[in-house]
Amino acid sequence: MVWNGDNGCKVKNGRKQYTVNIEKRTCSCRSFQLTGLPCPHGCAAIWHMAGEPDDYLDQFYHKETYEKAYAYPLQPINGTHESVKFGIEPVLSPIDKKMLGRPKKNRRKPKDEPKEKKGLNNLVGLG
Prior knowledge:
This protein is of the alpha+beta class and 127 residues long. The chain has three helices and four strands; from the N terminus they run ββββααα. It is 17% helix and 13% strand. Strand 2 and strand 3 (16-21) form a beta hairpin. This is SWIM-type domain-containing protein. Keywords: Metal-binding, Zinc, Zinc-finger. It holds the Pfam family SWIM.
């Protein structure tokens, strides 16, 4: 790992390298931004700063957020038998089309072309 300033570093993993910015909570692998959880590269940078990865979790993963989300009781809803119909027809699945196969290797002979006779007389020079 190579430290590149106050808030970031470059983490090498084999031939690959990732840029981590701890203040912005970003990593070039994009896992830190997408999940809100520190990726392995982010954890390495956080540990290098003598920090704890749990302090860099997104607010979504905190217990307080969970408690706020479920603070109110959820009321049951009516079933599908009481749903309002809007008169829109359901979407049908697409029509199956027969896929064309691979083209024939031999050329297509016209109907008026004589058929080729098989046998010894057909060889070159014996005709």
